[in-house]
TrEMBL record:
Gene3D superfamilies with a match to the protein in the record: alpha/beta hydrolase (3.40.50.1820)
Annotated protein name in UniProt: Homoserine O-acetyltransferase
Taxonomic source organism: Penicillium subrubescens
Entry keyword Transferase: yes
Keywords of the record: Transferase
Cited InterPro entries: AB_hydrolase_1, AB_hydrolase_fold, HAT_MetX-like
One GO biological process term: antibiotic biosynthetic process
Location of the active site: 125, 313, 344
AB hydrolase-1 domain segment(s): 57-321
Regions annotated as coiled coil: none
Family annotation (Pfam families): Abhydrolase_1
The keyword Phosphoprotein appears for this protein: no
Amino acid sequence: MSQPDYDIYKLGDWELQSGEKIDDAHIAYKTFGNPKLPAIVYPTWFSGAIADNFWLIGEDKTLNPKEYFIIITALFGNGQSSSPSNQPTPKPFPKVSFFDNVRAQYELVTKHFGITRLRAVVGWSMGAGQTYQWATQYPDFMDIAVPFCGSAKTSLHNQVFIEGVKTALLAVKNTRSAGSGKGGLQEDSVELRTWSDRDREVGLKAMGRVYAGWGFSQAFYRQKLYETALGYKDLEDFLQNHWEKWACSKGNHLSPEVIKLALTAVLDPENLLVMMQTWQNGDVSQQEPYNGDFEKAMASIKAKTLVLPAKTDLYFPPEDSEYEVACMKPGVGTLGVFPSIWGHWAGGPGDSKEDVAWLDKQMAEFFAANPPDSVTALGEKLQDTL
């Protein structure tokens, strides 16, 4: 049996913001580069496996493993970190937040790797949410934050979008959503949390078709880029072989033994429900010392922050990002907008080569314009020589 192409860090029984805990928790991660290089944390996104982040890393890119020690961290619920699919019994998974994920990442970074400061945190979509969480939860720990196509607080409209996706998934179980930000099922039982192969196929394909109306923009469809740029023969081919395949092809029919060992990310319905709950509850002000004051939380950010929404993103629109930057202290936030019709997919996962080049250029220029603090950099260099 092949071994996973990532590592596991054991967290023990992990206490959560909700007051619940994940028993014998672990966080999955993969690194690129030398640990003595300046470190960058690059979290995963909704449904994403660790390998789904590789497209932004390379010796020809800003995230160059010859220059940085890059740590990709996996969300709770992605099938690689602690998730319903790799728990011993089918039961409700504890309620986890961006705060819980980032606290686990911080322990990995500080206790396992001994890192005392990050050069940057960067991320797309839910990865952007984690980037904002890092910048507010540990504001003195990094030089730079680059959230792209994401938000510091999940908007009401975004919550509604996720409810549509969630409800399509749950309909196959003849049950309803418990509500926005809730754990998914209105009714809770082991039977409901046991998904047959048929349940998975029908539910996940339905979810994929709902997502298809949100991931790309109206202009993307109007110009039929699914044919000219992605090579599908027509709309139905695109819906089946892009969206349904995305929903169903990441390990849903693996053996229980493989799933238990977490050898791959799993688009398991219960995993998706965990990530949806995390996403719907995203809000950097829901932590001490902000206590629900969003403007105070955003004003606490000290890292130079490059905020990159996409012009045509249907659930993270530029006007939300404009407000986030406006709430930061003068000189902290910089706003740039993807000039793209690829919608949310402008920010990832690498399908639009023009957008990848644009993103990488913005990051390269921002990194160059915001070098590490000289005193901090000198202290770290001396520490490395000891």
